[in-house]
Structure formats: structure tokens, C-alpha cells
Write a structure and sequence with these properties.
The protein has about 80 residues and is α+β, with helices and mostly antiparallel strands. The chain has one domain. The chain is built from one helix and six strands, in the order αββββββ. The strands form two sheets. A three-stranded antiparallel β-sheet has the order 1-2-3. Strands 4-5-6 form a three-stranded antiparallel β-sheet, with no helix packed on it. A hairpin with a 7-residue loop joins strand 4 and strand 5. The longest helix is centred in the first third of the chain and has 11 residues.
Length: about 80
């Protein structure tokens, strides 16, 4: 497993990232204040292809809370 995916806790989430972004994704964006996970994972060969991005942090819709798929934590930025 590559270093980018080492801090992902759930195996099913790792599989989903690999299916969407390839075996060696790059990650960036805001970081979860609870676990430090980056917001987005992207295909390293085509990081601009938004259709292949996997979002670990779900942004708020109604209130100002966000949710991390890695640690299941809620937080405000």
C-alpha cells in the first residue's frame, strides 16, 4: 500500500479510493482536524479530472459542520 493511503482506517474506503483514483493517488485540500486526513484524493496521472476525485471530507449542506469519512468525526472550519 502506498504512503498516501496509510492513514485511511477502513478497508472499504481504501478500495473505493483505489477504484476511483488508481493505485497511487495523490491527496490534498483541507485536512480533518481530528485525524489529519486530506480532503480529496486524485488520480496521479490526471489530477485535474474531477470525475475521478474521491472526497474524504463531506462539506456542510445546511449547517456549518463538515464530516470526515476516515474518522467519522464532525467539525467546523
Amino acid at each position: 500500500m502506498n504512503n498516501t493511503l496509510n492513514n485511511i482506517k477502513k478497508e472499504e474506503v481504501k478500495r473505493s479510493i483505489i477504484e476511483r483514483c488508481g493505485d497511487y493517488p495523490v491527496s490534498d485540500g483541507l485536512q480533518c482536524p481530528n485525524c489529519g486526513c486530506d480532503e480529496t484524493f486524485k488520480n496521479k496521472d490526471n489530477p485535474e479530472d474531477i470525475s475521478k476525485w474521491f472526497f474524504m471530507i463531506k462539506a456542510f449542506k445546511v449547517d456549518d459542520w463538515s464530516f470526515c469519512n476516515n474518522c467519522s468525526g464532525g467539525f467546523r472550519f
